[in-house]
């Protein structure tokens, strides 16, 4: 018999424990989340600094996966800017390009051998 306690989710720490090990932990969040009106060189500089911290972080993969899975729309997560995550989401949501679909569509299909009696129309194609 299943008890109510067994149906309850585990503690949040089971899912978010990786955040406790992030190199960003304890730093000013303004480095990872742009202030209103920040543009141009100031934003580029701040993002570059945040990405340097992310690059050395032991949980960068978990952070990036979390941001992509939960559609985090603001801030630097897993070394990716808001724009970079948007580009990845769009790319992953797009169907394969025509040439890629053609290649993928031919997998597992045996090609028929050509014969000497091909029609003129077949030879032109």
UniProtKB/TrEMBL annotation:
The UniProt annotation places [4Fe-4S] cluster binding at 24, 54, 57, 63
Record GO terms (molecular function) = 4 iron, 4 sulfur cluster binding; dinitrosyl-iron complex binding; DNA binding; metal ion binding; protein-disulfide reductase [NAD(P)H] activity
The free-text note explaining how the cofactor binds reads: Binds 1 [4Fe-4S] cluster per subunit. Following nitrosylation of the [4Fe-4S] cluster binds 1 [4Fe-8(NO)] cluster per subunit.
* PTM text: Upon Fe-S cluster removal intramolecular disulfide bonds are formed.
Q: Tell me the superkingdom of the source.
A: Bacteria
Q: Which cofactor does it need?
A: [4Fe-4S] cluster
Q: Where is the composition biased (Basic and acidic residues)?
A: 86-103
Q: Which GO terms describe its cellular component?
A: cytoplasm
Q: Which residues form the 4Fe-4S Wbl-type domain?
A: 23-87
The answer to keyword Cell membrane applying to this record is: no
InterPro entries attached to this UniProt entry: 4FE4S_WBL (IPR034768), Whib (IPR003482)
Keywords, A to Z? 4Fe-4S, Cytoplasm, Disulfide bond, DNA-binding, Iron, Iron-sulfur, Metal-binding, Transcription, Transcription regulation
**Which Pfam family, just one, is annotated for this protein?**
Whib
For biological process, the GO terms are: cell redox homeostasis; negative regulation of DNA-templated transcription
The main place the protein resides is: cytoplasm
Coiled-coil-forming residues are: none
PROSITE patterns named in the record:
4FE4S_WBL
Q: Does the keyword Iron apply?
A: yes
**Subcellular location per the Swiss-Prot or TrEMBL entry:** Cytoplasm
Region annotation Disordered: where it falls in the sequence: 86-125
Q: Function of this protein?
A: Acts as a transcriptional regulator. Probably redox-responsive. The apo- but not holo-form probably binds DNA.
Q: Which family does it belong to?
A: Belongs to the WhiB family.
Q: What is this protein called?
A: Transcriptional regulator WhiB
Q: What organism does this protein naturally occur in?
A: Gordonia hirsuta DSM 44140 = NBRC 16056
Q: Which gene encodes it?
A: whiB
């Amino acid at each position: 018999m299943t008890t109510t306690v067994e149906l309850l989710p585990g503690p949040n720490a089971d899912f978010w424990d990786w955040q406790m090990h992030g190199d960003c932990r304890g730093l000013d969040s303004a480095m990872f989340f742009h202030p209103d009106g920040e543009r141009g060189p100031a934003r580029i500089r701040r993002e570059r600094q945040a990405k340097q911290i992310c690059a050395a972080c032991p949980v960068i993969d978990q952070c990036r996966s979390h941001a992509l899975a939960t559609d985090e729309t603001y801030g630097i997560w897993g070394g990716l800017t808001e724009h970079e995550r948007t580009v990845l989401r769009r790319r992953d949501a797009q169907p394969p390009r025509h040439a890629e679909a053609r290649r993928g569509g031919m997998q597992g299909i045996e090609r028929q051998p050509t014969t000497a009696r091909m029609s003129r129309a077949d030879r032109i194609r």
